[in-house]
TrEMBL record:
Taxon lineage: Bacteria, Pseudomonadati, Pseudomonadota, Betaproteobacteria, Burkholderiales
Name of the featured protein: Hydrogenase-4 component B
Encoding gene (name): hyfB
Any Gene Ontology CC annotation: plasma membrane
DNA-binding as UniProt keyword: no
Domain NADH:quinone oxidoreductase/Mrp antiporter transmembrane: residue ranges: 123-411
Topology relative to the membrane: Multi-pass membrane protein
Amino acid sequence: MSADLILAASVLWLATAMLSPMRSVRALLRYLLSAGCVLGVAACLIALPTATPSVEFPFALASQRIAFALEPSALWLLGFGLVPAIFACWLGSPLSGRSGTWWAGASLSLLGALGVFGLQDGISMLVAWEVMSLGGAVMLAGERAREANGKPVLLMLALLEVGAIALVFAILLLDQASAGIGFDAFIAHGPRTSTLLSWVAGMALLIGFGAKLGLIPFYEWFPRAYSSGSGATGALFSGVVLNAAYFALSRGWNSWLGVASDSGTAFGLGVVAIAIGVVSAVLAILFAFQQDDWRALLSYSSAENASVAVAMLGVTQLFRSDHLNDLAGLAWTVALLHLAGHSLAKGALFLVADGIQASTGNYDIVPRGWIRNSRFMLGLGALFAVMSLASIPPQAGFVSEWYVFQSVFQGFHLSAFTGRLVLVLAGAGLALAAAVALATFVKLFGLGLLGMPDPDYQRPVPRRSAVAVGLLGLCVLAVAVGAPLWLNALASGAQTLFQANSPQAMLSGWLLVPLTDKFAFISPSKLVIVMPLLALIPLALLRFTRTRPARRTAVWFGGMTAHGRDAMTTPLTFSNAMRTFYSFVYQPTMSTEREHEQREYFIKRLVFSEGVTDLFERHLFEPAVRFVTWYANRLRALQSGNLNFYLALIGGLLVAILALTLV
């Protein structure tokens, strides 16, 4: 049943890609894409907690028979990634106009992600990976990327191709070692893989999949590419595409490299993943805090959340190196839970951004009172999503963040002092990232959705967007409240990888515990009942103690009576204190230009600009571009058009060939 539904979903997505150039059926495309996502979610729900049966296709690729199967963790990440994709595809991109390019790109991204989740050999997986990347570029090209001369898309493709080369290298290494390109051969030969090969292949996999996950230095393509597209594109990027990249990295490290039998490799890779994941999370969320565009802020946040998941993958390897399989299964499960809640919450906020763009024509974070002017469902969904990404109870992000710290706190079980120290430092770094994330989403909600209504923007967020955001927000709450039910879906996956019952041990009735209720516990299921009841107390006090009506007066604004909108906090003033404190990271830039009228005493125009420095663009990407440009200019002489020069080159080649032949 589940295999049939997945096949039907892929057929619908393929039909969308084929029909996208036809204007006469343009309205049909949203139905096909959305229906395919619905079928995909249904297939995941039916198949969990077990894997789908393996299906072998009647054709081969490079003499390798192609097989397809989805294991429980793939079903989990695919299902949660497709939920926001349903609404993103239904609403479509507000920037695509009448072009069908965006629909073709979305269908290619979904097909590629499905292949990354389910294909069972290295060649076909690499093809699916490239199709997924191509789909993302096509989506952006179908929007307003051409207004920036395509540079954000080219940067994205350039960095993703660096990752693709690393993946090809890793697959070739594993193929050479196991004498087979299929994942079954990788797994079977894993315990006999040499330490050096496991190290090199593991690092290549981290670079390859990390390019899509936004690890340093790759996260700098996120704000550029996301900001050149729509929120619908961002919802697909931060949902099913990001989940597919993490699943592929997790599968590679946990299954292909034989780390279960090589403690040294597992420990080393774990330390590297924790260090890169924590540093990436801190840097990404610090730069997210400084953004004043919805898409840029949310894209940096996606890189931060993916980095937290990678850090937990490193924690998994650290526990596995000490044969603490239950704790390894705990960290592995926590990463999947974290990405599930992130997919839903981030999809909701990207759709909020599209709703604001439909009303204002831009994605600026400006206080315009959207909650007051728009419908209840918009405020409800946005609030739940922001609470989750800020790790505020009882939302899904709070549950996963709590589990993250509980996993790190278990470091005292490790026998090596180095491992214990790494987890202590990781906990400190993740705490910093969580604190900045809280401030970031307070800024996003307070300045992006609250404030006084702007009379120039009286049009509310479209109703369809508000309903979609509200439903996704309720799904975020459902993930947290229903965690005692959902976690059982990962039991068989943890048992297969770690021979541990970690997901089941994370439950004690309606309590969530880190393997034992003697260490710590929470219960979002009970919190969602108790918190509204506790809210009745201040409401009753407010009702029975208020004897005078509230008196409203103008905000003090430099001693002058001013309109309330003039006294509101701006994104710059809200984030300037942290920009100053972390100036060694941000390296802020400010400039003031003055235009005078007739004489210098009379200023006609004052232009102020500010920004922060992209570290890797300045110190890594720009030098690389300068080197390539310099080298290309030197090689330009080969295209001089001088016939004598070309004849000389041919003559030199003939002499070299003869010399090699004689030798």
